[in-house]
Amino acid sequence: MTESIRDELARLTLELCSIPSETCHEAQIASWVQARCAAAAGPHAVTRLGNSVLCEPFGRDERPGQPTIALVGHTDTVKCAEEQPYEIRDGRVYGCGASDMKAGIAVMLALLDRWRELEHGRPVWIFYDGEEGPAHGNGLGPVLASGALPAIDFAFILEPTDRGVQPGCMGLIHATVTIPGVRAHSARPWQGQNALYNAIPFLQKLRDWGRREVRFGDLSFYEVIVATAAATHNSRNVVPDALDLNVNFRFAPGNTAESAEAELRALAGPECIVTVTDTAPAGDVYADHPLIADWCRREQLAVLPKQAWTDVARFTTNGIPAVNFGPGETGQAHQAGEWASIDSLEHCYGALRRWFAQ
């Protein structure tokens, strides 16, 4: 691989980072990506669905018998840090969303620019919005339900994966667990029951729950239940009669949101009120899928569990095998001063280019 592709990928990542695209504000970057796709493959190959962009340069009657492969990336970012640098320095691209996942979008676009040179398979490109927000606002759901895509045989989601392949993903539940008490004046607390103190047994259960290993072959996923926020709704001089805890349950592939919810309710006990506010399914594990198994061995790619949720789950629940494989560093996601290494950009681009050349 020449130095020029490194420079191209780095410049493209920085350009993408310079386009603000916080969740719910993706119109500008969607228009930019749409124009870029139309320039590469022609306007006839591009479909805009809200702020999601699909690109299908190959006709559906071309390459009969070849697998249809989706290259998938979200264009939105979390709210950017105020002191975020935007520059290329010391082998890294600095910018909001650099690792999560403007670097992945850059690799997708670099491959799209060379779509005529991709000799194997029938790739389609999916750029979507709303991944960093709540599940109901995720743009991939409407895309998969739209009928605008051909039947997909396999999907690569270009989330950062530390140069490995990460099959499957964790499912999640967010729930409000309300611990009741009895209201009283704070000068006479013995007349009430402080919901904060009543919550101690449940909080101790969460503290002691630790993590639970679930194995798929050589892969270990870890289920965890964590309290992430607490709130009362009383004045400062009132003993609270209720404490609301946000509890996040991350469950492994093979588990379901329904069984995880039942476990959480049992853990909370009958004295607590559990209200589920958000759920997302776990993603099935396709570590040895025939479309990637030999490729993983040739590329000497580490196969690692995805200890988080990604849109791999949306594909696998729709019966489409998928894995996470993208540039960037997982530890940089959502960080102030976020960066992606140029080595990871080159590595991901080269590995995918060779998949389409096999």
Describe the fold and architecture:
- The structure is a single chain.
- Helix content is 29%, strand content 25%.
- It has helices at 3-17, 27-41, 98-113, 140-145, 195-198, 200-209, 257-268, 293-299, 312-317, 342-355; strands at residues 46-49, 52-55, 68-74, 87-89, 92-94, 122-128, 154-157, 166-167, 171-180, 184-185, 212-216, 219-231, 238-239, 242-251, 273-280, 322-324, 339-341.
- It has a seven-stranded mixed sheet with strand order 1-2-6-3-7-16-8.
- The radius of gyration is 23 Å and the shape is elongated.
Features:
358 residues, alpha+beta, 7-stranded mixed sheet, 10 helices, 29% helix
Percentage of residues in strands: 25-35%
Which regions have little confidence, pLDDT < 50, spanning 5+ residues? none
Structural class: alpha+beta
Principal-axes shape call: elongated
Number of helices: 10
H and E order: HHEEEEEHEHEEEEHHEEEEHEHHEEH
Considering DSSP H and I runs of 4 or more, what fraction of the residues is helical?
Answer: 25-40%
